[in-house]
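tool=predict chain=A
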Amino acid sequence: MHRESVSPWQHHHTFGQDVVRVGESRTWWVIGLTSVMMIVEVCAGVLFGSMALLADGLHMASHAGALGITAFGYGYARRHAADPRFSFGTGKVNSLAGFAGALLLGVFAVIMAVESLERLVSPVVIAFNQAILVAVVGLAVNGLSVALLGVDHAEHGDDDQVHHDHNLRSAYLHVLADALTSLLAIFALASGKYLGLGWMDPVMGIVGAALVTRWSIGLARDTSGVLLDRQAPEPIRRKVLAAIEVEAGDRVSDLHVWSVGPGIYAAIISVVTDDPDCASRFKERLPADLGIVHASVEVQHCRTVSR
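tool=predict ok
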C-alpha cells in the first residue's frame, strides 16, 4: 500500500490554533494602555517627588512585561500551529503562558507585601494630591483594560474556548490586579489625606497582595493541570462513557481524555466488545459538542461482555 493511499484518513493537528484568538488583539491594546500609564506614573513620580507614584509606575512596568508574555504566547502558538514537532498542535502554549503569568502574579504579590511591610516600619512622605489624581487616572485605564479583556462570551459564540483560555485569563488577572491596586491606593491615600491615617497605604498593599496571591494560586492550579495532562472534567468523561456504552455488548475498559488547547480535548479509548467491527463506529458516537478533536479508539474482542 502506497503512503498516498492513506491520505483520506489523515488530518491536520492545528485544531484552530492557527487563527487569531479573541484575546490576542485585545491584549495588544491593553499593553499599549498599560505602557502609556506606566510612563505617566513614572514621570509624575519623578516630577512630584512621590515615591508612591514611582513605585506604582514600576509595578505597571512589570505587568506590561507579563502581558508581553501573554502576547508572545498567542503569537507563538499561531505561527507554529502546523509544526509537526508538536504532536497535538500548540494549544498548550496557551496554558504555558498562563502558568508563567501565574508565577509572575505570585512574585508581584510577594513584592507588594514586602514593600508594604517596609512602609509600615519606615513610613514615607506621600504627595497626596498628585498621588490621588494619578491613581484615579490609573484606575480608569485599568478599568478600561479589564473591560477589554473581560470578553463577552455570547458575542463570540464560543463560550467554552473563551472560558478555557488560560492565557487570556492570566492577562485579565494581571490588569484586574492593577485595578485593585489602584482602587486600594485611592482608598488608602484618601484616608491618609483626610483622616491622617497614613498607615492605611501599606495595610491596603498587604490586603491587595493577599488577593493577588489567591488569584495566582488558582491560575497556577488550572494551568498546571493542563500541562500535566490531567483528566478532563468528570461531566465530559461521563458523556464519553455514555456515548460509547450505548449498546449492551460494548464496554470501555480504559479512558483518557485530556486538554490539548483552550476548550479542546484529545481522547484515547479502549473498548471491549462482542462485536469487534470497525472502530470508526465508536468514534462516530462521540458527541460533537464535547470538543474532542483527536480520538484514538482501541477495540478488543470479548464474547463474555454483558451488563
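The beta strands are 87-90, 250-261, 264-273, 292-301. The longest helix spans residues 91-121.
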